[in-house]
Automatic annotation (TrEMBL):
Keywords: mRNA transport, Repeat, RNA-binding, Translation regulation, Transport. One of its GO terms (molecular function) is RNA binding. This is Insulin-like growth factor 2 mRNA-binding protein 3. The keyword DNA repair does not apply.
Length: 604
């Protein structure tokens, strides 16, 4: 199938006008033009002719004052997980392309298409249609190094035909003169690190790092095969600006050291007398493991490298900024060695967390981890962020496990979502009553209610503290109303906050009691025959699940189910119970009858 869609067609255009353009550009077509209002269709004899039409006409040819857009015509029913991306800069680095594609989902394959054009063309297959659709929406027409990307679907039948030849090889075929680390090179370079390196630099050196008309930063990018983002517009007036480096671990180190050398040279030229230590940012989740028991890990790195390493205080963290600043004092050589060891530790922690989260994503049914936005695009520590975040903190900020700056998508979440099943349609809102120590209420609310407002905004949930039932109550109830994803985020942050504020001991696991309400007629299904279901729930989730006997249903004919356990145990139990309730609701729905006729009585 090589049918082309021609968009942005003027109402004055005729079949002859379009045919004239094709003949002038020597593009063969195998049938008449079907002209509609605002668009047209035409068949090409083969894929090569279709690609030629897209390259030469789309965005380049004007007809009656309108610039034509050309793409492969794919009916909605045939839109697959596979798409073609055209007009890719020929010198684009492998790491940059991988990172760009991975923002929108799990990439199963990526093969280059041989064309006669200077720019590169690739066929990309995502793990799911919604991921491909998102990539299509975000990438089509987006600018990359002064090249406007052109993205079109590849229909199912074409994808199936091409899959046989391209399957099993994730990479590009050689085209023309190979360029080191670019799509034109047959052999893949080392894989990009899942965790970008985040560093802080004094604001006065940002201009020197960028260079005249961006020449310096382009040179660093080219030499180190990395993608470097300088977030100079964030935190106006701040003394330091964050820089994010996407590359292989070796590329990140080289780019970082090059930036340090540029700053030191600029300091000499401008007679800047203060020391310029190397500062990197890491998510608080990793810091405990970096430090080690009684600080042993950090002391060993200092001894091995001859550096002095300090880490910013926990007090600097907020719900929107969970990054800690790690400052390395030493010579460039010593700092480079220390950074290498720190990055190794962070990667080990990241891989451990990934394994644990993959396990949980398999266990928790119905939870769309993509929608959670909990995990940054690079990793839980040093990655890019979800867009649309509220005002940032001191260093660009990040929400619980969320990314520190806007606009690059949720890469880590997309990796996990491949194994989690998203909800069909719009997820329903749920209400959970979470019991916390009465003394912790102030920590959850925050000064002038700031923390609970931020948490509610971040999670997308309604979060309220219920009044105390008695004057001397040792527990208070947090009422959380929101979708399953909102519940996950809100409860996760509350569990974490109680640990951070030392309401539980350093070796004590945070275990809380949660109450959810279920219809009284469904309580028996949660319990199961002879308590079989509830026992299985407890064995699977490691949570204590209790349906109190002799409950009097409330005014909505609902009863309480109690869940007690650590965070993931509680989440898993909640999801499993909601799954049981969904089955009950489905079974209660009247079955549709064909033709709208009432069911006929059975013959005896």
């Amino acid at each position: 199938m090589n049918k082309l869609y021609i968009g942005n067609v003027s109402a004055e255009a005729s079949e002859e006008d379009l045919e004239t353009i094709f003949e002038r550009l020597k593009i063969p077509h195998s049938g008449p033009f079907l002209v509609k209002t605002g668009y047209a269709f035409v068949d090409c004899p083969d894929e090569k002719a279709a690609n030629l039409a897209i390259e030469r006409i789309s965005g380049n040819e004007e007809l009656f004052g309108k610039v034509l857009e050309v793409a492969i015509s794919v009916p909605k029913s045939q839109r697959s997980c596979k798409m073609q991306i055209r007009n890719i800069p020929p010198h684009m680095q492998w790491e940059v392309l991988d990172g760009m594609l991975a923002q929108y989902g799990t990439v199963e394959s990526c093969e280059q298409v041989n064309t006669d054009t200077e720019t590169a063309v690739v066929n990309v297959r995502y793990a799911a249609k919604d991921q491909a659709r998102l990539a299509m929406e975000k990438l089509n027409g987006s600018m990359m190094e002064n090249f406007a990307l052109k993205v079109s679907y590849i229909p199912d039948e074409t994808a199936a035909a091409e899959g046989a030849s391209g399957r099993g090889r994730r990479g590009f075929n050689a085209r023309g003169t190979p360029r080191s680390g670019s799509p034109g090179q047959g052999a893949r370079p080392k894989m990009q690190s899942d965790i970008p390196l985040r560093m802080l630099v004094p604001t006065q050196f940002v201009g020197a790092i960028i260079g005249k008309e961006g020449a310096t930063i382009r040179n660093i990018t080219k030499q180190t095969h990395s993608k470097i983002d300088i977030h100079r517009k964030e935190n106006a007036g701040a003394a330091e600006k964050p820089i994010t480096i996407h590359s292989t671990p070796e590329g990140c180190l080289n780019a970082c050291m090059t930036i340090m050398e540029i700053m030191q040279k600029e300091a000499v030229d401008t007679k800047f007398t203060e020391a310029i230590p190397l500062k990197i940012l890491a998510h608080n989740n990793f810091v405990g493991r970096l430090i080690g028991k009684e600080g042993r890990n950090l002391k060993k790195i200092e001894q091995d490298t001859g550096t002095k390493i300090t880490i910013s205080a926990l007090l600097d963290l907020t719900v929107y900024n969970l990054e800690r600043t790690i400052t390395i004092n030493g010579t460039l050589k010593e700092s480079n060695k220390a950074l290498e060891e720190l990055m190794t530790k962070i990667m080990e922690s990241y891989e451990s967390d990934m394994a644990a989260m993959n396990l949980q994503s398999n266990l928790i049914p119905g939870l769309n981890l993509n929608a959670l936005g909990l995990f940054p695009s690079g990793a839980p520590g040093m990655g890019p962020s979800m867009s649309g975040m509220p005002p940032h903190g001191a260093h660009g900020g990040s929400a619980y496990g969320c990314s520190p700056y806007g606009g690059e998508g949720t890469f880590w979440a997309s990796k996990l979502s491949a194994s989690s099943q998203p909800f069909s349609g719009q997820p329903e809102s749920e209400t959970v009553h979470l019991f916390i120590p009465a003394l912790a209420v102030g920590a959850i609310i925050g000064k002038q209610g700031q923390h609970i407002k931020q948490l509610s905004h971040f999670a997308g949930a309604s979060i309220k503290i219920a009044p105390a039932e008695e004057k001397d109550s040792i527990q208070r109830v947090v009422i959380i109303i929101g979708t399953p994803e909102a519940q996950f985020k809100a409860q996760c942050r509350i569990f974490g906050k109680l640990k951070e504020e030392n309401f539980f001991g350093p070796k004590e696991e945070v275990k809380l009691e949660a109450h959810i309400k279920v219809p009284s007629f469904a309580a028996g299904r949660v319990i199961g025959k002879g308590g079989k279901t509830v026992n299985e729930l407890q064995n699977l989730t490691c949570a204590e699940v209790v349906v109190p006997r002799d409950q009097t249903p409330d005014e909505n004919d609902q009863v309480i189910v109690k869940i007690i356990g650590h965070f993931f145990a509680c989440q898993l139990a909640q999801r499993k119970i909601q799954e049981i309730l969904a089955q009950v609701r489905r079974q209660q729905q009247p079955k549709p009858t064909s033709g709208g006729q009432p069911p006929q009585p059975r013959r005896k």
